[in-house]
Amino acid sequence: MYSNNQRKLILQLDKKKFRLTNKLFVAEGKKVVNELINAGWSFKMLFSTEDNFHKNADIIKDEEMKKITHFNSPSPVLGVFELPDEKKILAEPTTIAVDGISDPGNLGTIIRLCDWFGLSELFCSYDTVDCFNPKVIQASAGSIVRVKCHYFNDLSKSLVALNKPIFGTTTKGDSIYSTRLMEKASYVFGSEASGISESLSSQLSRELSIPEFRLDENKPESLNVATTTAIFLSELNTEKIDGITKDNLTSKSIEFEIGEHSEKVFDSSLWVLSPGVPSDLDFVLQLMKILLKNATFIDPKSTFHFSSKDILIQDGIISEIDDEIIDDEAKIISYSNLHISRGWFDSSVCFGEPGYEERETLKNGLKTAGLSGFSQIALNPNTNPITDNQTAVGYLKNAAVKSATQIYPIASFSKNQEGKQLTELYDLKQNGAIAFGDFKKPIKNTELFKIALLYAQRFKGLIISHPSDSSLGNNGGVHEGVAVSYTHLTLPTILLV
Predict the structure, then answer these.
(1) Beta strands in 111-264 (DSSP E)
(2) How confident is the model at residue 237 (pLDDT cuts 50, 70, 90)?
(3) Is 96 exposed, middle or buried (0-12, 13-18, 19+ CB in 10 A)?
């Protein structure tokens, strides 16, 4: 049995100010309470509706438990525990941070996810819900004992102080499936309502997102923040290959693989560093230091344009550019006439897939493009089925995930390339089409062409026309000679008056 004062205190601990004043918090549920007790957390009160739960538990009736629970459906066990002392920041290689998360269930789930993926701390903005809120404690399912939540008045400043790249999750960022996620980095997750705060957004090294796979209009606006965190942590851990790290690269025979790729990638007068590198080499680049010696920049937008510098790459990112860099830990790449540039863009590419895989598959085409230094390609709609709908565009876009080379589909100008009816130009552009054209088929219907140009102008769409007139091909000949004389394929006579 509990007293009225005890009951009043337990109910007050629903509020943060009372938790801080009394240095106590409430935990409900057998699993959660057991986790706390087994971890050595001190409790002040312990109540149970079951006789055999704990020797120090006060046995109460179900009706009494309903009067002190913080939930609609009371658990058979409730404990009041002392707030733990502040712990030092561990500064783990991977830092997960939440910005302005207000839903207790989401925060509790994120704490549980951190625990599942082996992370021992979580960075929180000051306006994030208190981790000792009863609903957070319950949602964490006991993981609160292994994951320390650090709260900061200025989360942005605290993350910058870690001296690691900061990646933020947004709805318009680069796809995580086409981005090599780094272990040594900070990942920030904002609230569904407000996203990442403006002060923190300005410090992001890169924005990342989870691409939408539903292409119709009836798609959700966003993902739940806890779900987003789960997908990111899962994807981050798939980047680890059988425990290969910097310390055991040599023992895993990765040096041989690096050497093999060096022959293919660096044995040329011009090498594209990033993002036009093969995905498997890209992984290795993140695990080691690479020192490019005396590389000449080809980048008109850079202050280093046409200058020769040493370039140090660490964890897949250029960390230093100088006239001479000495680093005994780095793998040195030194070739005569070595050049470096941004990834290249090919504006007209033809693969075979889907429909004509015997010509070339998407996988092989993307691999060849990446090894050749092309980080972006515009893919023509000469496939079967033709790229004249949102599903086809989505198929091509998704085919490039995990690839160093990104696909920008050119969608068909007309349905089935028949030149009779326009495709859904606006919807296709919204789903990733970069331009519209019927490949090598001319647009014969000039009225349709005019309508398309006027319509596309509204959303800055690009129309591609193959400038040929098939009527000029009949009875035409290009060269004089034996073959022309024999076949009688001559140009028609034109009389000028």
Answers:
(1) 121-125, 148-152, 166-175, 185-190, 206-209
(2) confident
(3) buried
What is d(CA 286, CA 182) in angstroms, rounded to the nearest whole number?
7
Angle (deg, nearest 10), helices 254-265 and 279-287:
120
Q: Does residue 222 share a domain with residue 109?
A: yes
Instruction: Report the alpha-carbon distance of residue 123 to residue 188 in Å, rounded.
Output: 9
- The per-residue pLDDT for 282 is 47
User: Is the same domain home to 332 and 460?
Assistant: no
273 shares its domain with 326: yes
Q: Are residues 266 and 201 in the same domain?
A: no
Q: Identify whether residues 400 and 449 lie together within a single domain.
A: yes
Q: Which amino acid is at 139?
A: A
Q: Are 320 and 247 in contact (CB under 8 A)?
A: no
Q: Are residues 358 and 427 in the same domain?
A: yes
- What is the chain's length? 497
**DSSP string across 175-204:** EGGGS---SSEEEEEEBTTTBS-HHHHTT-
Considering the domain boundaries, does residue 274 fall inside one?
Answer: yes
Cβ(196)–Cβ(99) under 8 Å?
Answer: yes
Strands 77-82 and 24-28: antiparallel
pLDDT at residue 221 above 50?
yes
Q: Considering the domain boundaries, does residue 89 fall inside one?
A: no
Rounded CA-CA distance 164/182 in Å is 10
How many domains does the chain fold into?
4
Identity of the residue numbered 365: G
Q: What SS3 class is residue 46?
A: strand
| 0.70 exceeded by pTM | no
Chain-centroid distance of CA 487 in Å reads 61
Token output for 204: 């992001």
| Number of CB atoms found within 10 A of residue 450's CB | 10
Contact indicator for 81, 40 with CB cutoff of 8 Å: no
Residues 16 and 71 in one domain: yes
Range of the domain at 200: 94-238
- 209 phi/psi in degrees, rounded to 5: -150, 165
Q: Is residue 496 part of a domain?
A: no
Please report whether residue 103 resides in a domain: yes
Q: Residue 473: which pLDDT band, with cuts at 50, 70 and 90?
A: low
For residue 484, the model assigns a pLDDT of: 59
Residues 349, 486: Cα–Cα separation, whole Å: 38
Residue closest to 205 by CA, chosen among 271, 153, 274, 156: 156
Q: Got the DSSP string for 257-270? A: HHHHHHHHHTSSS-
362 & 415 share domain: yes
List the single range of 29-38, 268-277, 328-337 with lowest mean pLDDT: 268-277
Provide the pLDDT confidence category of residue 472 given band limits of 50, 70 and 90. low
